[in-house]
TrEMBL record:
One Pfam family per UniProt: Ribonuc_L-PSP
TM annotation in the entry: none
InterPro entries registered for this protein in UniProt: RutC-like_sf (IPR035959), YjgF/YER057c/UK114 (IPR006175)
Record-given protein name: Bona fide RidA/YjgF/TdcF/RutC subgroup
Domain of life: Bacteria
Amino acid sequence: MTRTLISSGSPFEEKIAYSRAVVVDGWVFVSGTTGYDYATMTMPDDVADQCRNALSTIAKAVAEAGGQMSDVVQVRYILPDGADFEACWPVLQEVFGAVRPAATMIEARLLDPAMKIEIEVTAKITPPAAPA
């Protein structure tokens, strides 16, 4: 079994002892990701903007694993206020409209009250076919 750890550079990864993503045998497991912009360590107030930031961080991790967002097979959305979820739908449609992964939305408190959404995905990367 080959195991690859991927980091986004978030200081939380070292503090809490986790990886942004773990790749095992073509499967990519991306940890719950919030709306931080890790370049500036800021987070917007708007839930849709947080959703967009989280998906951008996730896309970078999936790309580092050798995949793309179309490889996502399952997604979990966690929001402290489930009523905020609908505001994220246009962003989700942009990213997952054609992919339509299996999905679950959970209402639960997050680590920081400023966090309005956390997203976790699983992707399956299929290696390119060998030339004939």
